[in-house]
Amino acid sequence: MVPLIGYVDRFSARPGETVAVKVSSELGDPYRADFVRIIHGDANPGGPGLKFEEVSASFAGTYRSRSQPLHLGSCGLVLPNKPVAFPDPCTVVVRIQPWLLDHRRQTVLAVEHGPTLWVIADGVGLTFRGRDHRLAAPMLKRRWYELRIIVEDGRVWLRQTALQRSWGVTDSGEAEFPGSLGSLDKIVFGAAPAAAPGPRDNSWGDFFNGRIEDPAILAGAWRTASPLEPEDEIVSPGGISRRRSTASASATAARSRSTAPCGTSQRERFADRVGMGKR
């Protein structure tokens, strides 16, 4: 590991513009920053050697060493102002397009102290109260799927619905098991909290590789075979509010679909639906 490393946020600048320098230091002592003009930059002993000319700069001086590790992966957080109770019945729905599937778990969403929805090449799974529930319906790369968690009267249904037809593959299915969801607390999209990370370890893991679209919590047990439109019914902090879409079939079909790689503003749309504050 390089004990002292840094980079600038841009390669060039016009007079009066700002160039930011990002530094990570593993040193126990402070480090010094100077601004120099490079006369000779070749350290080859057979050459002229290194030659620098110091230039006066307002930032020149010593700075406290601080380690700033760079972790791989990205995720989105939704932080509620206060816990929101999952209604019974209710349906949690999200659409995904996985890009890189294998045997490793990739988290779609994880509710703190609640369920974790994840996928592998063999299909969708739900970790719920310490137990794993899996659906034997293999997923295909770069195909769209709708995932639902349906809760009603102490029963949970986990459903995977392929939104694109693929011949010769049964990539849709449903599993049922007992349970209830409890309360809705912090939600992580595209990753799961790491188990007991160290001070320099990544706090997140099991990253999702693909696209996540239209997450929502819907009032009622939506067991319909056709894909859901998340704006039909939503959960608000004070309970359930009903909002039916009045758009015509042609307008709904023509509605543009905004999709983006994991870690983008799709989660902000979810926060708006459930009435949560965004940070």
- Sheet with most strands: strand arrangement: 7-18-10-11-12-13
> What name does the CATH topology of the largest domain carry?
Jelly Rolls
Mean pLDDT: 80
Estimate the strand proportion: 35-45%
CATH class of the largest domain: Mainly Beta
What letter string, H or E per element, gives the SSE order? EEEEEEEEEEEEEEEEEEEEEEEHH
Sheet with the most strands?
Answer: 6 strands, antiparallel
Number of domains: 2
- Low-pLDDT parts are 233-279
Helical run tally: 2
- Shape, principal axes of CA atoms: elongated
Helix and strand content put the structural class at: mainly beta
At CATH level 2, the architecture of the largest domain is Sandwich
Distance between the termini: 33 Å
Cα-based radius of gyration, to the nearest Å: 25 Å
State the share of residues found in helices, binned by percent: under 10%
| Beta strands, count | 23
